[in-house]
Amino acid sequence: MAYLHEFRDRKSAQALLSTIRNESRPDRDYRLMEFCGGHTHAIWRYGLREALPDNIRFIHGPGCPVCVLPISRIDMARTIASFPGVLLASYGDTLRVPASGGRSLLHSKAGGADVRMVLSTLDCLRLARENPGKTVVFFAIGFETTTPPTAVAILEAKRQGIPNFRVFSNHVLTPAALRSLLLDTTPEKQVRIDGFIGPSHVSSIIGTLPYEPIVREFSKPLVIAGFEPLDVLLAVLMLIRQINDGRAELENEYTRVVTPSGNPEARALVDRVFTLRESFEWRGLGLIPNSALAIRPAFRDFDAEDLFSVSCPSVSDPRVCECPDILRGIKTPEECRVFGTVCTPENPVGSCMVSSEGACAAAYTYGVRRTPDLEVRP
Amino acid sequence: MKTRLIELAHGSGGKATDDLVTEVFFRAFNNPALNRKNDQALLDLPPGRIVMACDSHVITPLFFPGGDIGTLSVTGTINDVAMAGAVPVALSAAFILEEGFPVDDLERIAASMAREAREAGVPIVTGDTKVVEKGSGDGVFISTTGIGVVPEGLVLSGDRCRPGDRLLVSGTIGDHGMALLAFREGMSFDPPLLSDCQSLHQLVGRMVEGVPSIRCLRDPTRGGVGAALNEWAAQSGVGIRIREESLPIRETVFSACELLGLDPLYMANEGKLLAVCPPEDAERLLEIMKSHPQGQNAAIIGEIVEDRGHFVEVETLMGGTRLLHWIHGDQLPRIC
Questions:
Q1: CB within 8 A of A271, min separation 6: which ones?
Q2: Beta strand segments in B270-335, E
Q3: Could you tell me which residues are beta bridge partners of residue A128?
Q4: Which of A123, A191, A264, A295 is the least buried, fewest Cβ under 10 Å from its Cβ?
Q5: pLDDT score of A372
C-alpha cells in the first residue's frame, strides 16, 4: 500500500509545526472546524491538539455518520427489526447508538430480533441469498462516501433478481449540513468559526466543486484535507495563511485523492438509484432541506420505507446530553455534564460517544485521564 | 473412516462414544497416560510448584490461515501455563460437538492438536466428549486445561511491575487478529496474512533461565497489547508508557489496519508475549529473545512509570501522547 508512512513522518511534522508556530499570530486565535469525524479522530489519535500552539482551536463538526442519525430513524429501524421474518443489517457502530429509552439495535438483538453487523453492502446480498425466507433490510447510513456502495447493492439485487433485499436509506449530504451550520443565525447557536477543514473521503466522491458556492456565500476559508496527521497539519497551515491574508478560498490539500469533479462513476451510480429528499432530520442540526437521499420510485421494490411504511415521531435527545450542541461546535465534549461519568463508550448516553469518529468518543478514548475514584480531569 | 457426521449417540457414553474416541482422539493423541483409558491421567511431575490454566476455544472459522481451532486450543493453554515461567507438563481436552459436525473435520482438528502437542512436548493425557443437538452449538467447542511446573525461586506475576522497569514484546503484534478478520471478510494480502499461533514455552524457558529477575509475562490474546497492559497497570498499581515508533508491526497488518480503521494495539495475538523486567536486565533479555527463532523481532517498547491513575499512555509517532484505554467489546471498522 502506498503512502502508509509518508504522511506520518515525524520530521516533516516537526517542520510543519514550527512553520505553523512562526506564521500564526500570537495576538489572535484561530478557530478551525474540522467537519469530519475522521479528522477529529486523527487530531486526538496523534495528539495534534497539544502539539499545536494554544491559540489554534479545533471545533469538532457534525461529520460523524452515526452521530447525526436522529433518534426517530433508529426507532424506525428498531421497529422494522421487530417485524417477524426481518433480518436487519448495518455497519457496526450503528447498532450501538441509543434511541428512545436508551435502547439500541443491540438491545433489539438481545431481545430476539435478527440484527447483524456487516462490513459491506455486498454482505447483505449474501445474507439475502442465504436466507430466502427472510426479508433482509440494510439500515443504510452515512455521507457521500458510503452511498455508492448502497447504490451498487440495489443495482446488483435488481440484476441478480434477489427479491428479499430492502434498503432503509438514511444517506445524508455533506454540503447541505455545512450550509445549515453557517445559515443558522440564532444567537445562542452562534459559534465563531474562522475556517473549515473540509471532508476527506467524502470529497473523493463529490469533488471540490460543491463547496465553492458555500465558500463564496459565507466568505469562510475551506481546505479539503486527508485524514493523516500531516494532512491535518498542512491544512491548518493553509487555513492560517488564508486567515492572515484575509482570504476566503477553497483549497485542496488532499490532491493525491481529491479532484475538482470527484468520482463521476460513483456519482452516476448514486444518481441512478437515489433522489433528493425535501427535508431530513439531523441529530443536533434539526430539519435540513435537501440534505438526504431517498430511493427513486424505479427501485421501490428495494425500498424498506415503501414496504413497511413505518414512521416514528421526532424525539429530543436526553436532557442531560449535549450532543446537539457538540455536533454544532457550540460546546466541547468536556463541557457536557455527563461526559466521562454517566456517558462513556461502554454506556453511551448520546450518539457522539458511540463511534470512534464521534467527538466525545475520541476525546474520551485518547484524552481523558480518569483517576481510580472516577474523578474526571480532561 | 467414511465421511460421517457427529450424531447424538456419539455423546451417549455408549459404544458410539467409545468408537469415536478411539478412532479419532486415541489414534491422534496416542501417549502412555492416555492409552491406559482411565477417566483420569496419572502423572509423575518434576519438583516445583504446580501451575494450572484453562482456556475455552470458540472460533469462526474453525480453519484459518496459519492454524485451526485445534492448534489454538493447544498453544493457547500451553502459553497460559508458560507465562508463569512454568514448564508445561500435560494437557486435558474437552470437546463439545454439535450434532451434524463432519467427523472428517474433527479428525483434522485432532491431528492439528496432536501435531502441536507433539512438537511442544506436552501430551494430551485426558479428555471428554459431549454432543449437543444441532443448533445448540457452533460445530465444535474445545476446552483445554494445562498443568506445568515452576522452578524453585521463580515468581512471575502481573502485580510485580515497578516504576523504571522495561517492557518488551517478543515480535510483531496483531498478526492473529488481522489474519482472521481478513480471512472472514475475504480480503487477501500479499504476502498473505497468517495467524501467529505457536507455543511459546521454549522461548519462555530461555528467558527465565537467562534473566530470572523477570517480573511478569503475558500473552496478549483477545483485547491485544492494549488489554494486557491495562491489566498489568491495574494489578501493579502503576502506569505504563509505550512508544508507538518502537512497536514491531508487519507491513501487511499495518496496511490492513489502516484500510479498516483499526488499531493493531487491540488486535489479538496467539504467539507473542509481553515481558517486564528491571531496567538493568532489559538489554540482556532482549538479546536472549532475539537469539530465539520465536523472538527475532523482539523489541523494548516502553517502560513502567509512576501513575496514580494507572494509565497506559502511548507516545505517538507525531511526538504527542494519547491514552490507551481498555477497549469495550470488539473494535469496529470505521464507516467513512
A1: none
A2: 274-277, 299-305, 312-315, 321-323
A3: none
A4: A264
A5: 37
Angle between helices A10-23 and A229-245 (to 10 degrees): 20
Type and span of the H or E element at A364: helix A359-367
Residue with cell 454544532: A328
Q: Give the number of residues written for chain B.
A: 336
HSE-up (13 A, CA, CB side) for residue B253: 25
Angle at A241 between CA A237 and CA A245, to 5 degrees: 170
Residue A365 and residue B317: Cβ atoms within 8 Å?
A: no
Q: In this predicted model, what pLDDT tens digit does every residue of B191-228 receive, in sequence order? A: 889 999 999 999 999 999 999 999 999 999 999 999 99
Cell (9 digits) for A232: 491535518
Q: Is A357:A37 a contact under the CB 8 Å cutoff?
A: yes
Can you read off the three cell numbers belonging to residue B205?
Answer: 524457558
Please tell me which residue, A318 or B242, carries the higher pLDDT value: B242
Residue B88 has a pLDDT of 98
| Type of residue at B147 | I
| Amino acid letter, residue A357 | E
Supply B329's cell numbers.
467489546
Question: Which grid cell is A76?
Answer: 424506525
For β-strands A135-142 and A165-171, DSSP reports them as parallel
Separation in Å, CA B297 to CA B161, B240, B303:
23, 21, 18
β-strands B87-98, B140-150 pairing: antiparallel
- Sign, CA dihedral A332-A334-A336-A339, equals positive
Q: Buried b vs exposed e over A297-330: b needs ≥16 C-beta within 10 Å?
A: eebeebbbbebbebebeebebbeebbbbbbbbbb
If one compares A71 and B1, the residue with the highest pLDDT of the two is A71
Q: Taking a C-beta distance cutoff of 8 angstroms, is the pair B103, B1 a contact?
A: yes
Beta carbons of B336 and A93 less than 8 Å apart? no
Intervals of chain A under pLDDT 70: 1, 368-378
Compute φ and ψ for A283, nearest 5 degrees: -65, 130
Q: Three cell numbers at B211?
A: 534473566
- If you count residue pairs, one on A and one on B, with CB atoms under 8 Å apart, how many are there? 100
Rounded to whole angstroms, the Cα distance separating A239 from A57 reads 12
Q: What's the pLDDT score for residue A52? A: 92
DSSP B263: -
Cell numbers given for A83 = 417485524
CB contact under 8 Å between A47 and B251, yes or no, is no
Among B258, B309, B333, select the one facing A372 at the smallest CB separation: B309
Predicted confidence (pLDDT) per residue in B270-328, tens digit: 999 999 999 999 999 999 999 999 999 999 999 999 999 999 999 988 878 889 988 87
- A333-366 in b/e form (b: 16+ CB < 10 A) is bbebebbbeebbbeebbbbbbbbbbbbbbbbbbb
Q: List CB contacts (< 8 A) between A89 and chain B.
A: none
The chain B residue lying nearest A17, using CA atoms, is B318
Query: Exposed e or buried b for every residue in A31-66, given b needs 16+ CB within 10 A?
Result: bbbbbbbbbbbbbbbbbbbebbeeebbbbbbbbbbb
Dihedral over alpha carbons A151, A153, A154, A158 (to 10 degrees): 140
Buried b (16+ CB within 10 A) or exposed e, A129-157: eeeeebbbbbbbbbbbbbbbbbbbbbeeb
Chain A residues near residue B319 by CB distance under 8 angstroms: 10, 13-14, 47, 51
Beta pairing, strands A274-276 & A250-252:
unpaired
Per-residue burial over A222-259, b if 16 or more Cβ lie within 10 Å, else e, is bbbbbbbbbbbbbbbbbbbbbbeeeebbbbbbbeebbe
pLDDT of residue B301: 98
